[in-house]
Structures are given as C-alpha cells and as structure tokens.
Design brief:
The chain has helices spanning 51-62, 82-88, 119-130; strands spanning 6-12, 15-25, 32-38, 42-48, 68-69, 78-79, 92-97, 100-106. By secondary structure, it is α+β, with helices and mostly antiparallel strands. It has one domain. The strands form two sheets. It has a five-stranded antiparallel sheet, with helices on one face. Strands 6-7-8 form a three-stranded antiparallel sheet, covered by helices on one side. The longest helix has 12 residues, at 51-62.
Length: 133
Amino acid sequence: MTQSPQTIQVSRAGIARDATVTWQQSADYRSWTVSIESAAFGRAEAQADDAFEALCIIREELEPFGWRIGVAGAQADVWPSGMARDQGGGLRAYRIATERAGELVDTFEPVDPETVTTVALQRAEADRVYGAS
C-alpha cells in the first residue's frame, strides 16, 4: 500500500508541478485528514470520515482554479465501496469495470494528472455503474 507522505504531480492547463500529499487518521479513529501541498498553490487540507472523501473535498476546492490532482483516487473509473470506506478508511478503491467493481487500487497512488477528472464526473460514473455513490 502507498505510504504517507507521497510525492505526486498536480497540473493546471497541461502544466505539471510537484506536490506532496499526506493522509492521517485522527487519534480517536473517527476521521481522516488529507493535505496536498505545492509551491504552485500552497496547502489545501480537509478532514472527513474517510481519506477518499477528504481527498474529494480538496479536489472540489481546487477544481474551479483548473487544478487536477495526480492520484488514482481521482481517475474517472475509480470509486471506493462502502466497506472500503468504513473498514479501510478510503485508502483503497475499486477500478470500475464494465457494470461491476474491478481491481483494488491505492487511492493515493501517483498517476499522470492528465488521466484524472473532476469529482462530479467521477461521481456520475460511479452512480451510473453502482446506482448510487
């Protein structure tokens, strides 16, 4: 499994920049904090019930400015199951295969930021395949 912190790429208008993503579960095991830091935009941080949701919050904050985050959890065909969120903290998600869940991937595995999409489009794909996110 991918370990925190992780060096990734972020991009805007096709220009990639280095960034660091970190994730950590709270001491009481009730929430996760994710932060992404880059010289290009500073630091974005969010807290949620699971790491995948915290990542989505950050992405929704940065997307209006054109930023795309180069992690597997931001690809259109990746979405976690409820069990992956509840028991695994959203650190792993399924690659959506035709009409079913496919292989598990690490949410924060580095990928080319040009291969990712918006949270809205990703959620729509999960809704299409699973019926609801």
